[in-house]
Amino acid sequence: MQSDEQISNIDQHESHPAFLADRTSESSSGDAEKSVATNGLELENNVLGNYSEDQVQSMGRNYALRYGMDPDLFSRAAAVARRPTGFNSMGFLSDHEKEALFLEIEHPWRIPWQLYWLIIMASMGAAVQGMDETVINGAQLYYPKYFGLDADTERNTWLVGLINSAPYLCCSCISCWTTDWLNERLARRGTIFLTCTISAVTCIWSALTNNWYHLFISRFFLGFGIGPKSSTIPVYSSECAPARIRGSLVMMWQVWTAFGIMFGYVMSLAFYTVPSHSIHKGLQWRLMLGSASLPAFLVMLQVWFCPESPRWLMGKGRHVEAFEAYSRIRGTPIQAARDTFYTHVLLLEESSYEMPFFRKVKEMFTVRRNRNGAVGAWVVMFMQQFCGINVIAYYSSSIFLDSGFIERDALLASWGYGMVNWIFALPAFLTIDKFGRRSLLLFAFPLMAGFLLLTGFAFWIKHEKARVGVIALGIYLFSAVYSSSEGPVPFTYSAECAALYVRDVTMSFATATCWFFNFILSLTWPSMLKKFKPQGAFGWYAAWNMIGFFMALWLLPETKGLALEELDEVFDVPAPKHAAYQTRHLVNWIQRAVFRQNIPKIEPLYHQQRVAVHNQEWVEMKHDVQHVE
Where is this protein chiefly located (predicted)? Predict the structure, then answer.
């Protein structure tokens, strides 16, 4: 624990913005107006900022009494929720509580091991879809021959694309839209368990098929495991993570997807020489497809030992359980109580937890705040596919074969792609919350376009060794940029851009978008490659990356560093106003950074302007403090 001298010296960290308010407040303790002015920025950004510390403490006390929790703890926690960085001037907090709050700001990665476990466990579900993308990559070198699809005909080309894309047809058309219904009835953990069970069973089923349409059916049903899981896990992680490192923790989804992609190539390499052993129509491709069930079993064994989402529990009125869940994933009781109380207050602003599904869908498009969030989610999910990454994930072995590799070397080169994809996802832990989601995309899209053109144009190189070397280089460089930008951003962004009451529906919409265009891409690539040749096919997706740059510039608000419920003001800015501002901002940046003009930066676009929804409990809570001085 910090000594009294250490606590008293916290204000000396003048370079740290978290302590500026306290430092100034204490240096002018006799001047109330100056203190209010100094703390105004923090209070302006806080829905509790319109109330005094005594009033907010009364709110916290009444909230705890209403739900049978510790009123003294929640009284102190409510004051911290009102001014999170002002804890040093709060005499009612113990030294231990001040130390914990200080370390939370100064060392945000010092979080309980249960939160690390929750994020890693949940995100392992992503390894299932990652493995499926790549084991089908290796299996398609074999199953077309056994199923009579190896002849170079238009029909066979489309059938192979249809089999490969079958899970994503199911995801986009059916399974993603069951997410809200499943989460409503089974909660986050129950949905994850069920979908991992479906994934494990259908992966084994696909390994036991004996003709192409049976394989198509089994892979179609795999979509019932992939769709709701991909919608639920990022939301679950997002709802449990602290705001300052939410992006880094939620992007564990992409890290484990990349790990699954890489491990799928390992399984393909491990089994490609396995003889048939009298197994009908081969054994090696069956082992490849069945191996994708392994991470699903690992998730199933662990998910029930993790806490449920506190936000989901509050949505069901289970406040004591929500506090208990927060207590497992926050360092101290004061932090757990602070987040429980503040989450409750912010959720009250969102009016209603209960709403019919089709009304949620309607309000996702008719309410401007929800519509802007949904458009942002659509953009990042659409571009995750049309940047061209899954062309390589599904067909890299075939691409390398076409460029001159032998079969074994094509699988090894594909494994190299998987390793690059995984390793370069790790730097995004540091960059996604430091630079922001939008900035990463604006940086990445032009680079990805250039590397796709490099890959496609390399097919014109006549010297075989030079050709395969440049093709591999282009694919690896493209993958490195993708994995640290467009890879982790979409599911992180989509999980945090929606208000709670439409969050599941918005995530369903986002993942359905992702899987629909995944289906389109994997279905059409064999035929596109045949018609356009590699140069035209890769050029097509290079052009889409340049379009993606402007879509990110005009349609994506930044979300880093804000609590999930504090994004309302950001997404409530009219889309034309946002696009016009970002265009001016880009011109201003070019003038300053490229042409070195000595001109000022333009003013920020966002200013916190909250308008509380008329919610009866929120009205009652405010009424409770009307006479508190």
Answer: membrane
Total tally of structural domains belonging to the chain: 1
End-to-end CA distance of the chain: 34
Backbone phi and psi for residue 83, each to the nearest 5 degrees, phi listed first = -140, 80
- Per the domain annotation, does 172 fall within a domain? yes
Q: What are the tokens at 480?
A: 């490195």
Q: Name the phi and psi angles at 459, rounded to 5.
A: -70, -15
Identify whether 328 is part of a domain.
no
213/551 Cα distance (integer angstroms) = 38
For 387-399, b where at least 16 C-beta lie within 10 A, e where not — what string?
bbbbbbbbbbbbb
CATH of the domain at 189: 1.20.1250.20
Predicted local confidence at residue 606, as pLDDT: 67
Following DSSP, what letter does each residue of 43-87 receive, concatenated? HHTSGGGGS-HHHHHHHHHHHHHHTTS-HHHHHHHHHHHHSTT-G
Domain that holds residue 309: 113-316+353-565
User: In this model, does residue 535 exceed pLDDT 50?
Assistant: yes
Domain assignment present for 377:
yes
**60/338 Cα distance (integer angstroms):** 9
Let me know how many helices (H) and strands (E) the chain has, helices first: 31, 0
Cα–Cα distance, 395 to 416 (Å, whole number): 14
DSSP letter string, 135-192: HHHHHTTTHHHHTT--S--HHHHHHHHHHHHHHHHHHHHTGGGGHHHHHHHHHHHHHH
Residue 22 scores a pLDDT above 50: no
The one-letter code for the residue type at 259 is: F
Helices (H), 251-356: 252-271, 284-290, 294-302, 310-315, 319-329, 333-349
One-letter-per-residue 3-state SS of 259-274: HHHHHHHHHHHHHCCC
Mean pLDDT of 119-132: 81
Cα separation, 447 vs 183, whole angstroms: 38
